[in-house]
């Protein structure tokens, strides 16, 4: 396997291996670039939509004002979700031809349930069913908490394709795959179709690295330089090996990029990656060889060192490192939930500012 002549490294990867990538955004310009370079999917969440609006606010402001005026008694939260849904649906149309061509396996745009409901399976299911009614080529993003796993199984039973997120560990990855299997098996036993379903489980490789670096800083732990760049890679590669051995119908999806290992070490795998636009540009401008590395093991010395000095790496790397009721208390999970919910609050504040201050907003 090598770079295909005339193609970018990312596009070459998609042409010469089963590895796919998504655009880690629903911004139209970024998604267009990604599709031109072989991308087969995209994603959104409050952080991403907030970033889109900051970049494209002048383009979206008139429409946001129009939505506010069309719903004069609506709360800022109601308006925010209407805006988020419209941005997502708008971007999903760009991927629909890929979705149609591939019988639902690819061409999906993920949309994330309200992170504030990470303890409430029923609320997540209800919102997911609403999202599913908005556009056909969706993946519904849910957090890998105990309640999230309940929702993942139920939605899989109902025929929705999930994207499990806020996930960093082997234990979480396996719990997601098993929940999907249970849901799809229940669905199949009732004679219902599962042929177009395309569930994925995200592994936020860079955020696991981030968490161990935070621990090292707080506790003054010294380790060999560069070892902490491999924690997420090690966990995701182990999860991939288990997925392959057990034949799970869920595919892994790597996220949270911090270095080129988070891309290059997974080339050749039957999986996808959700790559931010800035990292796509970096990878496409790089001289990193496009070759299969998915089966290359992480140096055992690195794994031994991380296991010796970081109990939280053991929790992430061990298949039985955590039980589902422990997932939401894991450091990387807590940190990411706080970030996602905080960004949701920022998004609401942006909408609030337009509702209250924009002169084109009509009074009742």
Number of helices: 14
How much of the polypeptide forms β-strand, as a percent range?
5-15%
Helix content: 40-55%
The CATH C-level name is Alpha Beta
- Segments where pLDDT lies below 50 for 5+ residues? none
Helix-strand sequence: HEHEHHEHEHEHEHHEHEHHHH
Indicate the CATH topology.
Answer: TIM Barrel
- Give Rg in angstroms: 20 Å
Q: CATH homologous superfamily name?
A: Aldolase class I
Per the principal axes of the C-alpha atoms, what is the gross shape?
A: globular
Summed over residues and divided by their number, the pLDDT gives a mean of 95
Descriptive labels:
364 residues; alpha/beta; TIM Barrel; 14 helices; 8 strands; 55% helix; globular
Task: Report a brief summary of the structure.
It is globular, with a radius of gyration of 20 Å.
Can you describe this structure?
There is one protein chain. By secondary structure, this protein is α/β, with parallel strands linked by helices. The protein is built from 14 helices and eight strands. α6 packs parallel to α7 (170-189). The longest helix has 27 residues, at 331-357. The radius of gyration is 20 Å and the shape is globular.
Question: What is the element layout, followed by pairings?
Answer:
Layout (H helix, E strand, L loop, with lengths): L8 H8 L3 E4 L4 H9 L4 E2 L3 H25 L5 H26 L6 E5 L8 H12 L5 E6 L2 H12 L4 E4 L4 H20 L10 E5 H15 L11 H16 L4 E5 L5 H4 L7 E4 L1 H8 L15 H10 L1 H7 L13 H27 L7
Parallel strand pairs: 1-8, 2-3, 3-4, 4-5, 5-6, 6-7, 7-8
Helix pairs in contact: 3-4, 3-14, 4-14, 5-6, 6-7, 7-9, 8-9, 8-14, 12-13
